[in-house]
Specification:
With about 260 residues, this protein is of the alpha/beta class. It has helices at about 20-30, 45-55, 65-80, 105-130, 160-180, 195-205, 210-215, 225-235, and strands at about 10-15, 35-40, 60, 85-90, 140-145, 185-190, 245-250. The termini are far apart.
Length: about 260
């Protein structure tokens, strides 16, 4: 039995690859032998440092919301590595605010990165995948996005972020529907409240928020980037080859109605 789960030598791009989820995912995929390319908006020295830390193949400064950079980057990776097996649209823009607080620019920036950016990443990747030979399992490639439980459950206080994640859930289903018959799979992972990223920063500023956060999680604990990475390892592996159009919640039940 292949202990690599079909991940060995896969070429995988992760946007937002230097953040908590991106780094944890890269490290786990690299441990199975995947060649992981980190994309982020850090300077090159910081990006290369992260590459060394997680065992990735390389770093490239790419803004997911910049269509030209995304298309050029995808083509370059496919040319130099010989193929492209998976793209993970994980980069995100989001900040706190309710409807009357948000400006045109706030809405534009959230959707530029979170929705249009993922659409352009998928478009660039699918063009490459359709032209390449399927692997031994008949798969030409996989498109994966990081969604959020708040894309389904309307959590107050970050309206443009929540709305963009709701759009992303439908986008992945449409991509799956269009390309399933051609050997391309499309799925998303929806984290809940993690002890990472903006939630961790908020807790550092105000530890009293922990009680409120935990009240939204039936499992009674915050999630970790490593738990999200485990879901991505599964979706990149051959075990998920018959799954497409799936929005996978890894949220400790946060998307459910909590019963006391």
């Amino acid at each position: 039995m292949d202990a690599s789960r079909g991940l060995k030598d896969q070429v995988i791009i992760i946007t937002g690859g230097c953040g908590d989820i991106g780094s944890a995912t890269a490290q786990k995929l690299a441990a199975f032998g995947a060649r992981v390319i980190l994309w982020d908006i850090l300077d090159d020295d910081a990006g290369r440092s992260r590459v060394q830390k997680v065992g990735a193949a390389e770093y490239r400064n790419v803004d997911q919301g910049n269509s030209a950079q995304v298309h050029e980057g995808v083509q370059d990776v496919a040319k130099r590595f010989g193929r492209l097996d998976v793209v993970i649209g994980n980069a995100v823009n989001g900040s706190l605010g309710r409807l009357l607080d948000r400006s045109w620019e706030d809405w534009q920036e959230s959707f530029r990165v979170n929705v249009t950016g993922c659409a352009m990443l998928a478009q660039a990747a699918v063009k490459i995948m359709l032209a390449q030979t399927p692997n031994a399992d008949g798969i030409r490639g996989k498109v994966l996005f990081t969604g959020s439980w708040v894309g389904i459950y309307p959590y107050p206080g970050s309206i443009d972020y929540c709305a963009s994640k709701a759009a992303l859930a439908h986008l992945i289903r449409l991509i799956a529907q269009e390309f399933a018959s051609q050997g391309i799979r499309a799925n998303s992972v929806c984290p809940g409240i993690l002890n990472a990223g903006s939630s961790r920063k908020a807790l550092e500023r105000n530890p009293d928020l922990l009680k409120m956060m935990l009240a939204s999680v039936p499992a009674g604990e915050l999630g970790t980037p490593e738990q999200i990475a485990d879901a991505y390892v599964f979706l990149c592996s051959r075990e998920s080859n018959y799954m497409t159009g799936h929005v996978m919640f890894v949220d400790g039940g946060a998307s459910l109605t909590k019963r006391e």
